[in-house]
Design goal:
By secondary structure, this protein is an all-alpha fold. It is about 75% helix and about 0% strand. Strands 1-2 form a two-stranded antiparallel sheet. A hairpin with a 2-residue loop joins strand 1 and strand 2.
């Protein structure tokens, strides 16, 4: 759909020229393309990949955690026989593992939700671009608009109205998509910040850092 959307964008920009020739007030092509690229730079695939990594890490750590002293009831009972202080350390260790797993699970779920929501927004956005980029205007191809007007097959005002309606649809959809993506990334960032206090420390080389999608 992304490739088709870029084709729709090119066709839409061509129609803007037709609209100007018919006396319509339409945005500059550069403004339209900038709006498109602002949304298009959000890499939902990277965000989905982050979610996959987090979910996989949670599963792997949950399996390993079952083998850690302090997580096993039988091991806890054995350690209890060695004294209260040792038991407290082991129990605290088990509780810390539990807390880290909860943080990792919640982080993964928040990322999955954001990726899914953004993907749905982009799907709707790409469909709008297909509609506004439909090459026929009132049944007339863009490159034949001038001839159609000259022979009376269509009036300039009719072409202008059609193209202005497309501009309105584009701008409304762009606003909704842009605002929706911004809000979802804000919620994800807030959730990540809230969880950060209990999250496991990243490796010293920084290899544990996950990249958020796009430039947002």
């Amino acid at each position: 759909m992304r490739t088709g959307a870029r084709s729709g964008l090119d066709s839409f920009c061509t129609l803007l020229g037709v609209g100007r020739d018919c006396g319509a007030t339409v945005p500059a092509e550069a403004d339209i393309r900038n709006r498109f690229h602002r949304i298009d730079r959000v890499d939902v695939s990277a965000l989905a990949a982050d979610a996959f990594v987090l979910a996989g890490s949670h599963h792997a750590l949950a399996v390993l955690a079952a083998q850690i002293p302090g997580k096993s009831a039988s091991l806890r009972q054995a350690w209890t026989q060695l004294g209260g202080e040792v038991t407290g350390v082991v129990t605290a260790h088990g509780e810390r593992v539990d807390a880290d797993l909860v943080v990792l699970r919640d982080w993964a779920q928040a990322t999955v939700s954001a990726a899914s929501g953004i993907e749905q927004l982009l799907t709707s956005w790409y469909r709008v671009l297909d509609r506004v980029g439909e090459p026929l205007v009132c049944g007339v191809p863009a490159d034949g608009a001038a001839d159609a007007v000259r022979v009376g097959a269509v009036t300039p005002s009719t072409l202008a109205d059609d193209i202005c309606a497309r501009v309105t649809l584009f701008e409304t959809a762009a606003d909704a998509t842009d605002n929706g993506i911004t809000e979802m990334l804000r919620v994800l960032t807030t959730a990540t910040d809230d969880l950060a206090g209990g999250s496991p420390a990243a490796p010293p080389d920084g290899s544990g850092h996950l990249a958020l999608a796009g430039d947002e």
